[in-house]
Amino acid sequence: MNQKIQPQLNLVTLIIIVITVLLVTKHNVNSTSYPKDELLGLNLAHSMSLLSESTREKNNTVRILFYGQSITRDYWWKGVNIALKHRFPHANIISKNLAIGGFPAQRLVLNTARDIISFYPDLIIFHVYGSNQDYERIIQKMRTLTTADIAIQTDHVAGKGNDWSTFMNEYFLPKIAAKYKCELIDVRSHWREYLQKHNYQPSQLLRDKIHLNSWGNLLMAQTVRSALVANPKAVDWAQDRTKTYEIKESGTLNLEFVGNRVDAIATLLGNSKAEIFIDGKHPSDIPDLYVFSRANDTGTVDWPWDVSAPFVISWQTPPVAEDWLLTILEVKSSGDTLEFTFELTGSQTGFDGIGNNKEKFISNSGRVVILPEHWWLKTDNGKPSPIKPGYKLHFYSELLGTDIYQKPPFRGFNREATVTLAQGLTNTKHTLTIVPLESKKVPIKSIRVYKPPLKESDLSLETITFEEWLKFR
Questions:
Q1: Residues 369/269, Cβ–Cβ less than 8 Å
Q2: Where are the alpha helices (DSSP H) in 11-68?
Q3: Does residue 458 form part of some domain?
Q4: How does DSSP assign 91-135, residue by residue?
């Protein structure tokens, strides 16, 4: 679905959604029968165990990512988030919504690696329209770059449907869920049952042809929340996705591991520092550990619609950790043919070149590359473009790791204090070396390694096409 509409629900609506989600104890709005309890949560063993096993004495940190496009940006996700915090009060839940309105799978896939590797969730709740092959490529990135459980949603009912929606919801998504061991939240079946039970038309749960109104948001929140359960029959199919090594000896530590992320968990006592090496290199010398942020994304804007920014930024020469400032110099044309020049400056690199949005830009240092097709210059609902001389775009290149381990601030006796030493490594064998700088005993009680369950060499796309499915269904 390429259309993008900013959610229009107000604070009062959100409060009603949250209160209703918290008060309703049965699985679905007005007790509709779908789905059956024993089938829920079978592919959520990892994340739901972290949530359900949190106690007053041990607050597990659980990172939850809501991902997709405008449907996921709507208010229902906040109801789900608050309901989970209410149900698991001792879990340290950190949630983020990085959905991008108007970005179908074929465009969202270009953003996925950056978004998921930088947040590194324990649970991903996902819905997107668009290309089925790019949908699968997104799932593949989630499986090869993170250790997260994945819950995928089928589409809600927005009209009479067509062959494509039947193909996606009744064939492709269930097949993808089974292939990659994702939890399938069958929103569509629940939605259809709810409409039939109450003799509603699909439009009665919508504010336009596709986006949810207040009641639709409530139904979506209830449907998703009800699927996120700790099923005692669930077995973690990738039990080696995380592994914790206790540290007992003093002096230099060498640890071989397989994975793409490694964290240090601090002791209560001690403050000495240590130098970190991965395969004999400082993390800052490993290009895979750098990501670019979203330009001008404050967390409150509708990115990138509100800011007119490149939605993909890459590099030719390995970056360093620094802030970047892109300043518009001259605007040569406007409207659909918007053309402009800009200059780029880095906080470490300094002045790094002048370019324009119609040509591939490679900065003087090679640390920033922007392709012309990666500029997003459309605005929402006819708003004027912010692109004008002097307009500034801020972003940064971030090191997902550290060269020097320093014990983090005390977070309470019931919560781990962790430092990510490296995140974004190739998912292969590595050697971690920790060298004490001030004392033989480094204040680290354990090392936790994250190993994504799939490798790129394991991957293949589904071969049946929509046209073939039409012939043989």
A1: no
A2: 11-23, 45-52
A3: no
A4: SEEEEEE---TT--HHHHHHHHHHHHHHH--SEEEEE--S-HHHH
Q: What is the CATH number of the domain that holds 159?
A: 3.40.50.1110
0.90 cut: is pTM over it? Answer: yes
Instruction: Kindly state whether residues 393 and 408 are assigned to the same domain.
Output: no
Q: What's the CA gap between 270 and 442, in Å, rounded?
A: 7
Domain of residue 391: give its range.
289-399
The token pair at 24 is: 């309703």
- How many angstroms separate the CA atoms of 419 and 85, rounded? 24
Judge contact between 244 and 451, C-beta under 8 A: no
- Number of domains into which the chain is organized: 3
Query: What b-and-e string marks burial along 212-248, b requiring 16 or more CB atoms within 10 Å of the CB?
Result: bbbbbbbbbbbbbbbbbbbbeebebebeebbeeeebe
| Concatenated DSSP letters of 247-316 | ----S-EEEEEEEEEEEEEE-SS----EEEEETTB-GGG-GGGEEEPPTT--SSS-TTTTT--BS--B-S
Q: If residue 405 lies in a helix (H) or strand (E), which one and from where to where?
A: strand 404-405
Q: What is the dihedral of CA 260, 266, 271, 277, to 10 degrees?
A: -20
- Do the beta carbons of residue 65 and residue 123 sit within 8 Å? yes
**Beta-strand relationship, 404-405 and 274-278:** antiparallel
CA angle, residues 211, 161, 191, in degrees to nearest 5: 60
Rounded CA gap, 205 and 74, in Å?
A: 13
Tokens of 110: 């270009």
In this predicted model, what pLDDT tens digit does every residue of 134-188 receive, in sequence order? 999 999 999 999 999 999 999 999 988 899 999 999 999 999 999 999 999 999 9
Contact 221, 14 (CB under 8 A): no
pLDDT digits (tens, 9 = 90+) for 26-64: 434 443 444 567 889 999 999 999 999 999 999 999 999
